[in-house]
Description:
- The protein has 113 residues and is an alpha+beta fold.
- It has a single domain (3-93), classed as Alpha-Beta Plaits (2-Layer Sandwich), CATH 3.30.70.100.
- Helices cover 31% and strands 27% of the residues.
- The chain contains three helices and four strands; from the N terminus they run E-H-E-E-H-H-E.
- The chain has helices at residues 16-31, 60-67, 70-80, and strands at residues 3-10, 36-43, 50-57, 88-93.
- The chain has a four-stranded antiparallel β-sheet with strand order 2-3-1-4.
- A hairpin with a 6-residue loop joins strand 2 (36-43) and strand 3 (50-57).
- It is globular, with a radius of gyration of 17 Å.
Amino acid sequence: MAVKELVERRVRKGYEGWVWHMLRDLRAEALRTHGYLYGESWRSADDPRVFMNLSVWGSLEQWQAWAQSDERMKAEERINRLLRKPGVVKVFEDAVDPFLEEPRTGGIQRPRQ
């Protein structure tokens, strides 16, 4: 099951361009990593120093391998030096109805009897 990682980063004033390029490079590195499906980067319309990154991975295990890789840890360390505080990472899985064996694909289903 695919997982999605969201990271919110609040950049120190004056370092927005540096961080943007570092995040682009980090995503390019992720592209070469097994299990990476795609990613997106956004900048807040309300506060140009707030960045949000999304990456989508084939499985939780693949995401965890990337999260613990030397490449990512070193890049995050460099990026964090330019932030007001370390980025906030949240990992999400597809929501699954606990009463069904498979994820809901749309519409309302009656419980199995």
